[in-house]
Amino acid sequence: MMGYGPQAGMSGLLKEGTKQLSGVEEAVLRNIDACKQLKTILCTSIGPNGMNKMVKSHMGKMFVTSDAATIVRELEIVHPAAKLLVTASDSQEQECGDATALVIVLAGELLEKAEDLLRLGLHTSDIIQGYEKAGLEANRMLPNLVSYELGDMKNVSEVSHALTSCIASKMHGLEDVIAPLVADACISILPANINTFSVENVRVTKIPGASVSDSMVIKGAVLTSNTQGVVKHVRDAKVAIYTCDFEMGQAETKGTVLLTSAQELLDYNKGEERNLEQKVKDIVDKGVNVVVSTKFGEVAAHFLDKYNVMMVKCPSKHEMRRIARSTKAIALPKLQPPTIDEIGKCD
Predict the structure, then answer these.
(1) 70, 216, 232, 253: most buried by Cβ count inside 10 Å?
(2) For residues 209 and 185, is the Cβ–Cβ distance under 8 A?
(3) What is d(CA 126, CA 124) in angstroms, rounded to the nearest whole number?
C-alpha cells in the first residue's frame, strides 16, 4: 500500500522548474535590476553624441542605430517590469515622437534611487507617495521653466525653431537644413483639427546622386521608379487606380477550349485582344490619361501606349493608398471604366 503526500507550499501548486520570488529582497529588487539593465543599454545612446547600437532581430536583420524606439522594439523584451518601461516609451513615441530614451533612462534612475531607499528600510508604499508628491511639484514648476513657446502653429520659422533641438539629437549639424523642411512638410498637411494629425501623411524618399542640402519638400506623392511605356509627362492628369493586374482577364473558373486548327487559335487570341482594347478605349473615353496598377501585361501596355496613356506601376498597396489620397481617386478592384467620382486629378 502506497501513500502520496503533496509538496508543501507554493512549489506544490506550480509546475516543475517554476521560480517563486517573494519579499522585497527577491521580487522587488529583481524587478528594479531588470529595469536598470534596460536603462544601461540606452543611456549611452542619448543626445547628439550618443553611440550607435548594433541589434540583430529574430528575423536575422541587423540594425545599427541610436534611436531608442528602434532598439527597444527589436530587443523583444519579455520581463514584465521592463515591459512596463517599454510601454511607457511607446506612449511617448506616439504622443511626441521623441524622448523615448529619456523616459526609460529617467525611470531607471528613479528606480535606482528607490532601491537605495528600500535597502534603508523604507516601505514601497512610502516611496510611491514620495514620488507622487515629487511629480505634483514637478508639474507645478514646469510652466516656469519654458524656454520657448510656439505662437503660430502654421508659421514655418517658428515651428522649425521648435524642432531644431529634436532634430539635432538625431542628425547633429544638419538641424538647420532639415528642420525647415520638416516644418514645411508638416504644416502643408496640417488638418483643421490638430489632434487628428497623422505622421503617415509625411514620407521620406531617398534618391541617390545628391547631398542632404539638396533635399526639398514636394506636395503630393513621389515614386522613385520610372513610368512604364513611352508616355513620361502628362499635364492636367486624370488618374484611374486599379488594385488588380492590368492585363487580359482570366476566367473565374477553370475551363477547356478546344481548338482544331491554327486559324481558330489566331481568331481566339485576336478576340481576347479586341476585348482588352475595348476596355482600354472605354477607360480613355472617360478622360483618363494616367493609369496606376500593380502590374501591366504586354498586350495591355501596347494598347495604353496606343492611346497615349501613362502607366504607373505600383506594387506596394501602401504607396497606392497614398497616391489615391493625394489625387482624390478611388481604387477599383476590377478592370472597368471608372465613374467621374472615381477619377483622381493631378496637375
Answers:
(1) 70
(2) no
(3) 5
Q: Span 105-129, mean pLDDT?
A: 88
Reading the block at residue 70, the C-alpha cell is: 528602434
pLDDT at 5 over 50: no
Report strand pairing: 310-313 vs 344-346.
unpaired
**pTM score > 0.85 for this model?**
no
Q: Which of 151, 148, 152, 153 is nearest to 186 (CA)?
A: 153
Alpha-carbon distance 212 to 189, whole Å? 22
pLDDT tens by residue, 228-260: 888 888 888 899 999 888 887 655 556 676 767
CA 312/CA 301 separation, integer angstroms? 11
The 3-state secondary structure of the chain, one letter per residue: CCCCCCCCCHHHCCCCCCCCCCCHHHHHHHHHHHHHHHHHHHHCCCCCCCCCEEEECCCCCEEEECCHHHHHHHHCCCCHHHHHHHHHHHHHHHHCCCCHHHHHHHHHHHHHHHHHHHHHCCCHHHHHHHHHHHHHHHHHHHHHHCCCCCCCCCCHHHHHHHHHHHHHCCCCCCHHHHHHHHHHHHHHCCCCCHHHCCHHHCCCCCCCCCCHHHCCCCCCCCCCCCCECCCCCCCCEEEEEECCCECCCCCCCCCCCCCCCHHHHHHHHHHHHHHHHHHHHHHHHCCCCEEEECCECHHHHHHHHHCCCEEEECCCHHHHHHHHHHHCCCCECCCCCCCCCCCEEEC
The tens digit of pLDDT for each residue in 78-107 reads 888 888 888 888 888 877 777 788 888 898
Angle at which helices 80-95 and 100-120 pack, to 10 degrees? 140
